Every structure is written in C-alpha cells, then in structure tokens.
Amino acid sequence: MEQTYYKTRDFGDIYRFIYQKKECSRQQIAKELDISLPTVTRNLNFLSESSLINIGGSFRSTGGRKANVYRCRPEARYALGMDITRGHLSIVLVDLKLDIVDSERISFPFADTKAYYDRLQKEVERFLGRQVVEKEKILGMGISLPAIIKGDQKTISYATVVDATGNLYEEINSRIPYPSMLFNDANSAGLAESWVHYSENPIIYLFLSNSVGGALMINGKIFPGMNWRASEFGHMKIIPNGKKCYCGKRGCLDAYCSAKKLSDFTNDNLKEFFEELALGNQGFRNVFDEYTDYLALALNNLRMCYDCDIILGGTVGAYIEEYIPEIREKAAALDHLGKRGDYIIGCHYKTEAAAVGAAIYYISDFIDSL
Ligand SMILES: [Zn+2]
To answer: What pTM was estimated for this model as a whole?
Structure first.
C-alpha cells in the first residue's frame, strides 16, 4: 500500500478541506485555502496517486468548462469500534465517511473475568475473519463503555453501570491485533453525531439509554472539562429530594429519563414500548407524557446554559423521531427567551452510535496526520 505522502502542509490542508466539504472543485480549493491553482493541482495529483481521493462527475457550470469534482475515498482507511454495555457487545467497522461497513451485536453480559475477555477476543477474531478489506488499512479500535475515562484513554476513573476494574484496558488491548483506546460511551455517541451533522457551531448530544449522559462538542471535538467529567447531564438535579438515582443521590435526570423509565413497562424491551405507544395504548401514553415533561425540563435547562442545538440520542433517541414535535412544544413553553423548540433534533445513528464514535479517534488522528 502507498505509504509515501508528500508531507507538505498543503497536501494535508487540501485533503482536510475536501473531507469537510464532502465534494469540491479545484477552483474552490484554491480560492478558499488561498493556494495557487498549480499548487492545488500538484497536490490533488499526489492525493490521487496515494489513493486518498478520486475525481468523480463534474460540477455544472454556467458557461465555460465543467469543473471536476474531488471527493475523499471512504475506503482508503477503516477503523474499528467496540461498545461494551452491561448486557451486550457490539463491534463495527467504519470507513472514513463513518459509514458502517459491517457490524455485529451480540448478547454477551459484561463480567470482569478472564472468560469474558477470552470470548471477546474470539468475537473480534471472528468479526475480522469475515472482512474483505485489507487488514493494514484498519487504523485501530476504539472501545466505548459506560464509564468515566481519564485523559490517557486507558484508565477508568469511575464506573457503576459495568463493574470494571483498572485492568480492563490491558486485558482487551493485549487480545486484539490493533492499537486501542477507551472512551466514554455518551461522549463517543455524541462525537459520531457531531461528525455527521458537521457544523462549526457547538452542539449537545443527550444520551438517553439505560443511563443518561451526554457530550458537548465544539468544532467536532469533545469538551472534556477539568476532570474529564463534563456533560454528565444524567446527574443534573432536576427535582430537589426527588427519586433515587443509581449514583446514590436523589432527583437526578437519570432517575426520570433513563430508557428504563419506559422499558420497565415492557420487560426491558424498549422497542415494544414504542410499538404499544404508537398503537395508542393510553397507559403507555401517560408514562411517555410524564417522561417528556422531565425531558423538556432538562432540554430547556441545557438550552439556557449552552444556547445550541441538542441531539436526542441513545436507545430512546432511536425511536423518538416522530415525537420530536411534541417534545419541542413542551420545551418551547418553558423557554422565556426564544419561545421555540426547533433546537431539538433527532439522531442520525439509530444504533451503534457509541461504537462508531469510539472509532472516530483513529479516523480523526489519520486525517490530522496527513
Ligand atoms: Zn445521579
């Protein structure tokens, strides 16, 4: 595989520009990056020789010659993402466009034991064994889990949803044939969403799964806070002395808006809850109304703090699209400034956002390294 890059700054800048724009013309690159056309052309040739971009179709232009369209080749590199939850293990393979090329989700309850890690290794081997992509094009594997991870991306500083010890990183890293790092699941999912909704504006991701969390992204990067604990939205107190939260305190958003508040009525089956709700089950409608009352309260609080769009994700986010108008209405009624709820948006990845987001580290690192 071609590894010799023509490492000038222009080479990387032009690649990153095309990546961000998704498609563009030679003239556009020259104009917006303020690089001369001959330099742009030379670097586009290098990028093309390195199999990083291709030339496809052509822009319609008003008169004159049609301009070639340059796009990044999504299949130039790949990254793996793994998501560890209390009950499941997911593995995804994504390309540079963050499209899921292959994925596997298995029922595999977490246990901090040798047997668990040995089976995890077997599952990774099986998954890799069926891939047709060149193994050396795979950059690494990001691992997401419901835990607070320190800045070294290897050390767990706090975990209650899965009972993991300090050795988890070493246990997994020694069993897979690629570099790996650990990431918080909600941050990862948020990162995946912010990359697909690429925007210069800050964006919040509210992770509504069996635990509630989130992420604040600025320019496609997660805001980590001073102790890597920023955006723990699940433990915002919304009701003084309210319901007990798994963290031991009372009145946290998690105690009102975790997916369990809905799936408790359908034997842990969230899909069934939403199916019943869609069929007009009045009992479920009452439960959902109460859920969205608290959700709207949290959304309005976040909007007051950050004044940006908020993506609803997690397992609840996968089913929420058709209820967004009613959630917006409730949130708008609380907003004394804007009196609007259109900042609330649905998520792009209905499944595996956390696994995709964990893979992004390696993709981002690759793009930055050019
Ligand atoms: Zn709490």
So the answer is: 0.83
